[in-house]
Structure formats: structure tokens, C-alpha cells
């Protein structure tokens, strides 16, 4: 039996099988059974596997006295207190790069779905309304001014895809990058110059509610917001109000502040396309994420350098 490991998130069956072949895997039980589980099982847990959207609490780290590594099956680590993990001597890994293309694809798909109103078109056909109409005309997605908040790995991949759409690309972030796109240090200034604003920045204290009312108003009633980062990067109340009041043209959202809760108002708006945090949810990418997560665990227990360490 290999090292004792606590699994907090769901994994592909194939990833789970590989994990179970080398580790003594314990599933995190339902809420009512957790206290008892911790009392009886916390001792000896050397590793935790968790999702980017779940992370791990400081309390959980403190209650696993033998914990050596938290392996995130995802790229985001905003749900982990890095200082706390470091102080507890716990290593942290994630799965960058392997999901970049899929998240960028979804960002562009959301833009197309919002601007060409594909959910409504699909419903129109399914409801047997075709050829009766009239179906509302939609808006052209190509040749626009595209703004990208955060030109990291995913932001860059979005820009690469948008290059095929013509138009202009600009970005914002803490630093200017060695690229030809226009740079705006201020997000509201970027929004004022954008028809579509893509949010692809990592969640952190610095980016919390970065997309606020001023940014949304700068984007304006014809503007479209796409978020494939984290819900916390947007002031969600301000977003809902802007959409409901027609101060923002539309939104494509894969992430929300309090997932899986989605603000009720959004469910009734036609100018919004909603997805249940599926940026990386292709078979190929989930398999690759699982393999990279396993590589990190195996390296840790073999005393080798971690392939993709965070701390
Ligand atoms: C990630 O990898 O961070 C995804 O958003 C899933 O949590």
C-alpha cells in the first residue's frame, strides 16, 4: 500500500485508477461525516488531491499533521493560502499549460455564442419555429476591438485565436509584455477601447472585483464581457445590474463568485450565456491534467524535483 492520500475532488475514472494503483486513496466524505473522518483518519495522510475551484482551507492543513503535499488537479491556486502552506511545510503543485488551449477555445466559443445568440437559435429550431420567425438579427463577432485582461498563458492563447478574427487586440495587466498589442495599465481604459472584454487573469487579492461598475460602464451597452478566470475577479452584483439595466450588451460566463450558485437574475436574461465552469472539461485535457497531477505526486514521494510546483 502506497502513501495515504485524501481526495477532495472528483477525478476521471482513469486518473482515479492510476492514483489508486500507487496510493492508499481516501475519499473526503459528505459534510456530516467529516469530523469523525478527521478524528479517525487524519493521522498519516501525506497528500491531498484537490481541484483549483476547491483548494484547501488552512484549518484542513492544520488538521492533517503528516501532510507533505497538496496536488491541485487544475491551474488556479487562489483557494490556497500560500503563506500558510509554506509555514506548515506543505508543498503545492498545479497543472498549468495542459489546459490553456481548451480554456482559450471556450472563451472564444462564449463570445460567438453571446454575439450570434446561438442558444436562442438552437431553441428556435428545437421549438419547431423555423421557418416562422422572426428571429432577431445578431451581431458580427469578427473585426472587433478585443480587450484581454491578463495576458498570461490563457490570455495569450485567446489573443492567438482572435488574430484570425481580424480587428484589434489590446490588453491590460500589471506589466507590459513584449507583444505588438496595445497596452493599457488601467482596466477601465482598456474596456473603453473594447467591444469584447475577455477576463483571463488569475484570481488574487489584487484582482478581486477588478471588473467593477466603472469598467462595465466603460465597456458600455454594446460591449460584451467574457469571463473564463474566476468569479471573484468581477463585482458580480455590478455585473448583474449592468446586464439587467441594459448598461452592458452581453456576457459569457464560465465562472461565478459562489459556484455552483448562479445569480437568479442571470437565468432570465437573453443576452447572457452561462456555462458550469467547464473551461478545461475536455476528455483530452482532463486526462493530461490528471497525469500531470500524478507526476507531481510521484516526484514528491520519490524525492525528485516537482514538475510544476507552486510552493
Ligand atoms: C482550474 O484549473 O483552475 C480550473 O478553473 C478548474 O478549477
Structural notes for this entry:
With 311 residues, the protein is of the alpha/beta class. The chain folds into two domains: 115 residues, Rossmann fold, CATH 3.40.50.720; 175 residues, 3-Layer(aba) Sandwich (Rossmann fold), CATH 3.40.50. Helices cover 35% and strands 15% of the residues. A seven-stranded parallel β-sheet has the order 8-7-6-9-10-11-12. The protein has a five-stranded parallel β-sheet with strand order 2-1-3-4-5. It is globular. The model has no long low-confidence stretch (mean pLDDT 97). The chain binds (2R)-2,3-dihydroxypropanoic acid (DGY). (2R)-2,3-dihydroxypropanoic acid binds next to loops.
Task: Give the helix/strand layout.
Blueprint: E1 4-7, H1 13-22, E2 24-27, H2 34-41, E3 45-50, H3 58-62, E4 69-72, H4 82-87, E5 91-93, H5 100-115, H6 118-126, E6 145-149, H7 153-162, E7 168-172, E8 182-183, H8 187-192, E9 196-199, H9 213-219, E10 224-227, H10 236-244, E11 250-253, H11 264-267, E12 272-274, H12 283-302
Parallel strand pairs: 1-2, 1-3, 3-4, 4-5, 6-7, 6-9, 7-8, 9-10, 10-11, 11-12
Bound molecules: (2R)-2,3-dihydroxypropanoic acid.
(2R)-2,3-dihydroxypropanoic acid is lined by residues 51-53, 74-76, 99, 279-280.
